[in-house]
Specification:
Layout (H helix, E strand, L loop, with lengths): L2 H31 L17 E5 L5 H21 L5 E4 L16 H8 L5 E5 L3 E3 L1 H8 L9 E3 L1 E2 L21 E2 L5 E4 H13 L6 E2 L2 H10 L8 E2 L13 E3 L15 E6 L9 H6 L7 E6 L8 E3 L10 H11 L9 E6 L3 E2 L1 H8 L9 E3 L1 E4 L6 E4 L5 E4 H9 L11 H11 L4 E3 L13 H5 L5 E2 L7 H9 L9
Parallel strand pairs: 1-2, 1-3, 5-10, 12-13, 12-15, 13-14, 17-21
Antiparallel strand pairs: 3-8, 4-11, 5-8, 6-7, 9-18, 15-20, 16-22, 17-20, 18-19
Helix pairs in contact: 1-4, 3-5, 8-10, 8-11
Length: 479
């Protein structure tokens, strides 16, 4: 039999499997589809070879390994189905530009590379598992020649600062995708977005919450499609799911030792009696090495004055003094430096567990990642309020580079981001760190997390937040 006939035969088999899948899915998931309008538009079914899966990978060696493993699993699954393989891309390999994690800068390149061969683009996390047959069934319910934006729908219960208080009158009216469940856009939509990106400047220079901002950009004030909820895009295991998710807090072995982390808490005199007692009443006791840095020396806490005056805005001067102290003989030598604000709540046992996944011999900067000017070759940075974690190697590289603050009151997290970018240290993202309060995030999203930090405890009941979200019931030594 000729190769052409073999290929044609497999395409017929693929279409037949999809047809069977429709009926199996209808039988098993009619309850899941009840609220979703069925698509009756006649269109050509697509095969796996017309699907581009983009794994939202990161440059850090741990994440690069995890995403490569996920890619191999997807391609092996395709081979077992006997179908042509989909295209599987690792986001961090698309270019040398570190800001590709924000997705939008990559769309023109994706459009140019795959406009003639792809029908769908599916974006997934490195810990998202995909069942290809079911994914294909889902995508074939929609005409890829029309504009579609598909995903598991999240929404805000109240107006959120991290979403710029969008839709404040009715926050639940706007849906955005849960990245852990994966989300898809049709080629028709991607091409239009790619064209728009090339001629239109972004309205905001900041990338804060990627999933919400992508949905907002696609919606385009009502001119583009809203997110269509797909029941088969899941985070928890169900028989009908095309995707499932494992965890954002992986098990890489025993937690690192307490002594491996040096904790620096930034404070100032006016908050000694308000915020420091909260830290001491919650997470302070979980640290082996911890120092409070203030604008005065207060033996009752105690605090250390680094010779940098207090500033009302950024704390760049203080933070760089902390970096230099961390490398000196004045403090115990540790693999990791954690810098937090005095209104940060954090779970050090969970952080110790997470850090087991990372090699302290690498230059690592870990936390909640934001971006500035990423559509114009900007830079990424770790948000200070959620906690900034740096390996000793990263601190050494940064300090020895000579990069410094342009003023003591410059925003320390953003300056650190610029400096780390200049010395080639990528920002590694974990959604378990939070710049805001629990109420500022989707309840559904938080329910599947083991959060590591929250910020602005002065605007909440801090002990209640710590007890509910961050305190583990099992003995700390077992974590």
């Amino acid at each position: 039999m000729s190769p052409c006939r073999v290929a044609s035969g497999w395409k017929l088999v693929a279409v037949f499997l999809v047809w069977l899948g429709f009926h199996a899915a209808d039988k098993n998931t009619c309850h899941a589809h009840a609220a979703e309008p069925r698509q009756h538009t006649t269109h050509r079914p697509v095969g796996l070879e017309e699907v581009v899966l983009v794994i939202q990978s990161q440059r850090n060696s741990y994440h690069a390994h995890q995403s490569a493993q996920r890619k191999a699993e997807i391609l092996q699954q395709a081979a077992q189905l006997g179908q042509e393989a989909p295209v599987v891309l690792l986001l961090h390999e698309l270019s040398e530009y570190e800001g590709d994690w924000s997705i939008l800068p990559t769309l023109p390149r994706l459009s140019a590379s795959f406009s003639q061969s792809a029908s769908w683009f599916f974006f997934l996390e490195e810990e998202t598992r995909v069942t290809l047959v079911t994914l294909l069934q889902v995508l074939n319910r929609y005409n890829s020649q029309e504009e579609w934006f598909l995903g598991k729908r999240l929404h805000d219960n109240e107006a959120s600062i991290i979403h710029h208080y969008a839709f404040s009158e009715d926050p639940s009216s706007f849906g955005y995708p849960d990245p852990a469940a994966g989300w898809a856009i049709s080629m028709s939509l991607l091409q239009r977005l790619a064209e728009r990106i090339q001629y239109e400047r972004m309205k905001s220079d900041f990338t804060i919450d990627l999933k919400h901002e992508i949905a907002f950009y696609i919606w385009e004030g009502g001119n583009g499609p809203k997110l269509t909820a797909v029941p088969e895009f899941c985070t928890q295991q169900r028989d009908y799911c095309a995707t499932t998710f494992t965890t954002y807090l992986p098990n890489c072995g025993d937690a690192v030792n307490k002594e491996d982390i040096f904790v620096a808490v930034k404070t100032c005199q006016k908050f000694h009696s308000e915020r420091v007692p909260v830290v001491k009443a919650t997470w302070d006791k979980d640290a082996a090495f911890l120092e409070y840095y203030s604008d005065v020396t207060d033996p009752s806490i105690p605090t250390i004055h680094l010779g940098v005056p207090n500033t009302e805005r950024g704390h760049c001067g203080k933070t760089f003094a902390i970096l230099r102290r961390f490398l000196s003989d004045s403090v115990p030598k540790a693999d990791w430096l954690l810098i937090v604000d005095d209104d940060t709540l954090i779970s050090l046992p969970r952080l110790r567990k997470l850090l087991r996944c990372y090699d302290p011999r690498e230059a690592v900067s870990l936390g909640e990642r934001y971006g500035y000017g990423l559509m114009q070759s900007g830079y990424s940075y770790t948000t200070g309020g959620g906690g900034m974690v740096l390996s000793r190697v990263a601190v050494s590289r940064l300090v020895s580079s000579g990069c410094s603050c342009y003023s003591d009151d410059a925003p320390d997290d953003m300056v650190l981001g610029m400096c780390l970018s200049s010395v080639g240290v990528p920002i590694t993202h974990s959604p378990l760190f939070h710049q805001a309060r629990p109420d500022d995030y989707s309840e559904d999203l938080l329910s599947m997390q083991q959060p590591i930090s929250f910020h602005k405890h002065w605007n909440t009941d801090p002990v209640a937040v710590y007890t509910h979200w961050l305190q583990d019931t099992q003995p700390r030594d077992e974590l």
